[in-house]
Amino acid sequence: MLFNKVFTTCIFIYFSDWSLLSVGCLFHMGQSIWRHVQSLGLQNKYVNDDAFRLNVNKLMALAFVPVDDVSRAYSSMIIEFDQDDDELLEYFENTWIGQKKARGNTIITCFPLNQKLSSNFR
Asked: How far apart are CA 84 and CA 63, in angstroms?
């Protein structure tokens, strides 16, 4: 754990002019998404459907998209999911994207966006 703290501090010092956002671990993000795929009973679809597997992997790849472009990337990505995958997309949005609450406060998760994206669902 100490190594991670030292490493992270060094990265932020070395790249101080960059606007880096380090919120979580890609491995744990992938594990969380996979567990949710399983909880929704979509693991067989993930194993047998190449397009679905690619789309789920694209969700994880959003971690590499600049924060300002995540909204556009996510919006263009979700149209490739089937209608029965909306529950997975809603989970991803609520857990990793963030959502705007009625009083105007945004719950900030990994990608701090200022708008709710579920209106883009079919």
From this structure: 24
